[in-house]
Design goal:
The structure holds two protein chains of two kinds. Chain A is of the alpha+beta class. Chain A is built from three helices and eight strands, in the order ααββββββββα. The radius of gyration of chain B is 29 Å and the shape is elongated. Classes of the chains: A alpha+beta, B alpha+beta.
Chain lengths: 159, 496
C-alpha cells in the first residue's frame, strides 16, 4: 500500500517537473535583462481568440517576436516580425486575433547586428473556447444585498 | 404795374418753394425708406427665427460613448451613432434597456463592488458625461416602466452584463450611487440574455479599435483604458472667426439680436484690447471679442421659485441658440453638436440649468485648450448667460465628399502615433511638467488618454488638428500632435 502511495507521489512529482519542461526546453538562450514581456503573462488563459503581446524595452534593441501554435507533434509559426528602437525606453505591442483554441507560444528574441538571436524569452498561453455566455455570477444574494433590498422595501412601505 | 411784377415774382418764388419742398419731402421719404430697408437688414436674426434649424433634444442628449467589455480584459468604445442593423448602436442598447424597464419586478440600490464585479464580465455600458433625471429620460424616450423608479433620481450610465442578465444597472457618478432593476420573468431573462450575447458577439467580431487597461500594456498598475492604436480620418483644418468686430454693420446686426428694444438705448464701448461691449443699463451686457467669440449675460428676472426640468430647459437653450447665431454655422462647418455637460445652477430661490455643448469633427471630439465652445444658463424660459466661441470651417464640398467616400472605400485611413509611444517618447517632459520622478510613476498617474481634434486657443486659434489629450490624476492636461507625438500644449488643473 505504502509502495503504491510512493509510486503515485513520484508520478505526481514527475508530472509537475516535466509539465513545464517545454517552456525551458524550447529556448536555450538567456533572458535579456533589458526586455520585459508585460503581456501575455506566463501560462495565461485567454477566453477569446486574441492575445495581446506587449514588450517593454529599456535599452536600444532589435527584437523579433514569433508567435507559434504548439501541437503535440510540432510547432507551427503563425506570425513573426522584427522591431527596432534606438530609444532607452520603448514598447513593442501587437494584438493577435482570430486564434483557435489551443496552446500558443510567444518568443521574444533579441537580435545582434548580424541578425542572430542572442537572448530569448518564451511565454506559453492557452486560448480557450469562449464560455462567458454561460458564466453567471450571483453577487446579489449576499447578506449585504438582501439587507439593502429589505431596507429599500421598508423605505418604500414607510414612505 | 410795379405791384403786378412783384406779385408775379412772389408767385414764382412760391412755385420754386413748392418744388423745393416736394423734392425735400421725396428726399426725406427716400431716407426713411432706406432706413426701413436697413432696419429689415438689422433684424435677420429675429426674421430667421421661424425658419432656423433647431436640433432635437435626442440628437444632443446621447451617450459620450458605449463601452463594450468583451470579458477578457479587452474593451472598445463605440460612438453612439455607430451604425447597427437599420439604426444605431445607441438605438439597440436603448431598446434592450427599455425591455428591462418595461418588465422590471423591483429595484434596489447596490454596492459599487457588486456592480464592478458583474461588469467585469462581458458587458455593455452607455455612458453620459452628465447626470440626467431618470424619469425625464424615460418619458422623453417613450420608455414605460412597470415599477416606480422615483427612488433613482438621476443617472450617468446605463449598463447590462451577460453574467447577470436578469439585471439592468444605473450608475450616478456624481453621487457615487449604483442601482439595479430586476426582471424575474425567466422567459424574458432568457430573451434578454440572448440579445445581449448576440450584440456583444456581433461587435466583437467586427473591426474595432482594442482598448486595454494601461496595466496590461505598460506593466504599471493603472486601470485607465488606453487604445492600442488609433485609425482616423480627421485632418488639420483651418477656419475663420465667427464674428468680426471690424465689420460695423455685421457687428450691429449681431448685437441687435440680443436686445429686444434695439440698439437705440444700448451703450457701445470699444475696449482697448479690441473687444466691443454693449450694455443696456446694468441688466444686460454683450461682449464681442476680437477673437470672434461672444459672451452675453443678463440678470435673472425676479420670478419667485423658478425651477426648470431638464428637457424643457434644454429646449429653451437650443431655441435661444437658434436665434442668436444659429446652428447653421455649426452644421455647415461639418461639426456634429452634442450635449457635453449639464448641471443645475441656483440664483437666490431660482434653480436652473447650465448646458455646455460639444462638437465632433470627423468622428473626433473637438477640444479647446481654453474656454467653452457653446454654453447657456437657463432659468425657466429665460437665458441668463450665453457663450459662443466657434471656429468656422470651410464647407465640405460635394466633390470633396465624393473623394472622401472613395478614400473610405479604398481604406485610406491614417494611423495616429500609438498612445504608448506618445508616453514613452515624452515621459521625461511629462515628468518635468507634472513634477513626477519616473516613467512608472507618471504612467500610474494618467487618468485618461483620448484622441481628439484640438484647438489651441492660445497659439493657433484658427486651426483644429488631431491630437492626443492626456489628463493626469491631478487634472493637469497635456496635448500631443497625433501624428508626430510632439507636445503641443499643457495646462495645469483649473482651480475652482
Amino acid at each position: 500500500m505504502s509502495r503504491r502511495k510512493a509510486l503515485i507521489a513520484l508520478a505526481v512529482i514527475f508530472c509537475l517537473v516535466f509539465s513545464s519542461v517545454p517552456a525551458f526546453a524550447a529556448t536555450s538562450l538567456a533572458k535579456d535583462p533589458y526586455i520585459t514581456v508585460v503581456s501575455p503573462t506566463k501560462n495565461a488563459v485567454m477566453k477569446t481568440g486574441s492575445v495581446l503581446v506587449s514588450v517593454k524595452m529599456t535599452a536600444p534593441r532589435t527584437i523579433r517576436m514569433s508567435f507559434y501554435e504548439e501541437t503535440k507533434s510540432a510547432r507551427r509559426l503563425i506570425k513573426t516580425e522584427k522591431f527596432s528602437s534606438s530609444r532607452s525606453l520603448s514598447y513593442y505591442t501587437r494584438q493577435l486575433t482570430g486564434l483557435d483554441p489551443g496552446v500558443y507560444c510567444v518568443n521574444i528574441s533579441t537580435l545582434n547586428s548580424a541578425g542572430r538571436a542572442i537572448y530569448a524569452s518564451e511565454i506559453y498561453v492557452k486560448v480557450q473556447k469562449r464560455t462567458s455566455d454561460s458564466v453567471k455570477v450571483d453577487v446579489f444574494n449576499s447578506q449585504n444585498s438582501s439587507s439593502s433590498f429589505w431596507a429599500t422595501l421598508l423605505k418604500k412601505l414607510l414612505g | 404795374m410795379l405791384r403786378r411784377i412783384e406779385k408775379k415774382y412772389i408767385e414764382r418764388i412760391k412755385n420754386v418753394l413748392i418744388v423745393v419742398l416736394f423734392l425735400t419731402a421725396v428726399l426725406l421719404l427716400s431716407f426713411f425708406w432706406q432706413d426701413a430697408v436697413s432696419l429689415r437688414d438689422l433684424t435677420p436674426i429675429i426674421m430667421d427665427e421661424e425658419n432656423s434649424y433647431i436640433p432635437e433634444a435626442d440628437d444632443l442628449v446621447r451617450p459620450r460613448y458605449i463601452l463594450f467589455n468583451y470579458g477578457t480584459d479587452i474593451y472598445t468604445l463605440f460612438a453612439a451613432d455607430e451604425p447597427h442593423e437599420s439604426g444605431t448602436i445607441y438605438d439597440e442598447v436603448k431598446s434592450i434597456a427599455a425591455e428591462y424597464i418595461g418588465s422590471a419586478y423591483t429595484s434596489e440600490q447596490i454596492e459599487a463592488s457588486q456592480y464592478q464585479e458583474v461588469m467585469s464580465y462581458a458587458s455593455v455600458v452607455m455612458r453620459f458625461d452628465y447626470n440626467i433625471p431618470l424619469l425625464e429620460y424615460l418619458e422623453q424616450n417613450d420608455i414605460e416602466s412597470s415599477i416606480d423608479l422615483s427612488d433613482i433620481p438621476g443617472m450617468t450610465s446605463i449598463g447590462f452584463s451577460s453574467a447577470s442578465s436578469e439585471n439592468l444597472f444605473f450608475v450616478n457618478r456624481q453621487t457615487n450611487t449604483y442601482y439595479r432593476i430586476v426582471v424575474d420573468d425567466e422567459e424574458k431573462i432568457s430573451e434578454l440574455s440572448g440579445r445581449i450575447s448576440e450584440l456583444i458577439a456581433e461587435k466583437e467580431s467586427s473591426d474595432y479599435i482594442p482598448y486595454y487597461n494601461m496595466s496590461d500594456i505598460t506593466g504599471v498598475e493603472n486601470d485607465a483604458l488606453m487604445p492600442l492604436y488609433m485609425s482616423s480620418e480627421a485632418v488639420s483644418v483651418s477656419g475663420n472667426r465667427e464674428f468680426s468686430i471690424e465689420n460695423e454693420e455685421e457687428l450691429s446686426r449681431t448685437a441687435s439680436g440680443f436686445f429686444s428694444s434695439g440698439l437705440d438705448f444700448v451703450r457701445k464701448i470699444t475696449e482697448n484690447k479690441g473687444a466691443v461691449l454693449y450694455m443696456y443699463g446694468t441688466s444686460q451686457s454683450l461682449i464681442i471679442n476680437e477673437d470672434g467669440s461672444l459672451e452675453y449675460s443678463e440678470n435673472v428676472e425676479n420670478y419667485p421659485h423658478v425651477s426648470s426640468d431638464f428637457y424643457g430647459s434644454l429646449d429653451t437653450a437650443t431655441e435661444y441658440i437658434a436665434t442668436h447665431g444659429g446652428w447653421e454655422n455649426i452644421y455647415g462647418s461639418g461639426y456634429v453638436p452634442y450635449l457635453k455637460d449639464a448641471h443645475t445652477i441656483t440664483n437666490g430661490e431660482s434653480t436652473g440649468y447650465h448646458f455646455e455643448f460639444g462638437l465632433e469633427y470627423d468622428g473626433a471630439e473637438v477640444q479647446y485648450t481654453e474656454g467653452e465652445l457653446l454654453s447657456a444658463d437657463v432659468y425657466g424660459s429665460q437665458v441668463t448667460s450665453y457663450r459662443r466661441d466657434l471656429l468656422i470651417l470651410p464647407e465640405k464640398e460635394q466633390n470633396e465628399e465624393e473623394n472622401m467616400q472613395e478614400d473610405e472605400q479604398n481604406g485610406d485611413e491614417w494611423y495616429a502615433m500609438a498612445p504608448i509611444d506618445v508616453l514613452t517618447n515624452n515621459y521625461e517632459k511629462i515628468c518635468r511638467i507634472v513634477s513626477i520622478g519616473s516613467f512608472e510613476e507618471m504612467t500610474a498617474d494618467v487618468s485618461s488618454i483620448r484622441f481628439c481634434c484640438m484647438r489651441d486657443r492660445e497659439n493657433d486659434p484658427l486651426k483644429i488638428r488631431p491630437a492626443w489629450r492626456i489628463i493626469m490624476s491631478d487634472g493637469h492636461q497635456l496635448w500631443f500632435d497625433a501624428e508626430s507625438g510632439r507636445l503641443l500644449h499643457h495646462k495645469p488643473a483649473e482651480v475652482n
